[in-house]
Amino acid sequence: MVTMKNLFKTTLPVIFVMILASLLPGIFPCVDTSRFTGNYRVPYSEGENYFLYEKYVNRVASSGRIAVIGDSVIWGHYTGRDDNLVASLNGLAGTDRFANIGIDGIHPAALYGLIDNYCASLRNRRVIIGINLLWMSSPAHDLSGGVNSSINHSALLPQAPGRIPAYSPSAEERLTLLVRREITLFAWIDHIRASRFADRSVYRWTMANPHACPGEYFMGQEESYNPPDPVRPERMTGRDMDWVMPDDSLQWMYMIKSIRKLKSRGNDVIAVITPFNQFMLTEKSRLGRDMIISVIMETLSADGVRVIVPALDRAEYYADLSHPLARGYSIMAKQLAENTLFTEFTGQP
Amino acid sequence: MLFQTWTFFVFFTLLYLLFRIIRGSEARGYLVLFASLIFYAWWNPWYIFLILWIITADYTVVFLMERHGRRRPILAVSVINSILVLGFFKYAGFLADSINSLFTAAGTGVVVSRPEIILPVGISFYIFISLGYVFDYYYGNTERGKSWFRYALFVSFFPQIIAGPIGRAFSMLPQFKLFRGPSADDTAEGIYLFTRGIFRKIVLADYFALYADKIFGNPAQFSSADLALGALAFTWQIYFDFSGYTDMARGIARMLGIDLMENFRLPYTARSTKEFWQRWHISLSSWFGDFVYKPLGGNRNGRLKESRNIITTMLLSGLWHGAAWNFLLWGLIHGILHSMSKAAGRLSITARAPVFAKRIFIFILIVFTWIFFRSESAADAFVFIKGIFSFSAGVPAAPLLMIMLMVLCYALHWLAEYRRLSFMERPAVRGFAIAAMVICLLFVSSSRVSGFIYQQF
Known about the structure:
B: globular
């Protein structure tokens, strides 16, 4: 009995502290949600902070705003938070009707994981989903080519081996990602680190700031995002794309799954195929792009999903192959606002 | 599969559940042997054959000794086998490099190709565990283990296979024979040891490593203060890295009802180099003491021969650690220091010196020897030491938090030495200590997992 008592005495404080720790994620709304207004987007440095993302989506879903989801084109990689597509749409609407729930660098396979795991609150809402042809522009982008050791948002990918040819992490990496995804306490700890401490442990921070007072670490820091320099129009030259056709494309398969997942939750979904820079394509590649767009439109129409394809007719509206600049977003927003399918969807003329 | 990974957590949870379900020492033994082989195969499945070869060879040698008497030629078979295996896998590259350096110096133009062999994890440990059994049997310290499978379990027992402790047959084989289930005390102690070990590794060793790696990466670039702090950072890094591993190994074994030997006893408060080796990597020190130093004659044939025996033993210990000249030099320095320490101990002035001064002096000496251990080469070590004594000015780039932690670690070492921390042994205090360590781990740990220093040996 004495030994059982010792075991009990040893484990009781541990259990008590773990219970307390597991309650910590519950304090989240008191701390962060005030940020989720206007043209807010998940900060660049917190692109992998899915805990924050989920809370943001919950707030968007409960507010009834129209969610705009997608990759860096929707997020606005080459613009500030007030110059992207969502900001332009809000500008035209005169209210904050649209919410940018895009994530920088996310490919459709990860987007599916994002929707499946972190967008559960998005039910019976209106959702705009951006389709970027970049992910089908080569087997490497499609993740159907050789093994790639630096895949963005790998935590969102299916962790069962063999599902994504380019994704081949060790068992330990898969397990770590699963644990950090599935156990809220770990996700919250990652969130705290990413949102308050620039994704660095106090240890690495002290190494980078050896003479600073360790207390400063806990003060946090302001997020600032400096968009990268775009490709100048005179440097844009035609190049050949090694397109992966939709029938063979892994990314397209996941995009379809993402759309169906959103629809299965009762959402009204409209797809926007974002412009792909014709000034950086050869004639043959342009034909390939057009062929893919027509297949996508056909497939989505058969699924009962409305599709809009805005176009940008000047090289200076683009930042690179697939990202518009602020002016490009503004034109896209106008095209959408003038499109009957879109106005029917939003319920506003 | 490292102890501080999720893979190991799943592996051990499954094993522990099965272990608690299964009854009988035989069945438990088979289960743990199977688990140990899976654990080892996780790095490289082919090396399973290597460990099975070592086990079978030494088991057969002892069997032959029982049949034909404890004869030297039979013992030699085991020693030669171990040297050949270690020589091939661990020292072939070092040998080729050394020969090439000689050829280059002589201007022969001949180049010996360097074999590209992946060093099997923990090879030095399990070979020493197995060879230790042969020696122990030869010297009459232990009975022959009749069962091959139980012997295989002893050598390949997964908590100790990567970095020890180097278990001895006379204490381990009887435990495997009984293989009683763990008591509640064992479980409580196991949880505490494992948590303390992972805390030492992730919260302490990995932090000191950040600074030590930076300084040892390019010693010529840093000021004297930075170099001295870098040497201190490595001093604490290696202690917490290795003792953390040992704690984890002991904790895991304890949760299975097996008591592994203690490997560290506050080494940085030693009063002499001899005492340091009685407190640091105790299992290896006692192995070399029993099977190298004593058979060479120990201290029986005069001071000169005693010094020779000490230096030879320490040189071999250096070579055991790694196939590089800096490890040999590290061993040689320890050998010389140890011999000098013995001689100095006989002087009345050192006998009268206050104990605290001795402890501090030995600590400083040990810090300097670690410079040879950590440096990429012997030349780098000398650059490092020269840098410290150049007294170059400059504000050190060491974080204040790290310096405070180092001071705290040393203070705790002293307090523990003078038994001022015995209240920590109370179960409830331990419980709160575990909780505090878990909280630190949750916030400090990252998805990046770093290996242990000693697993490469």
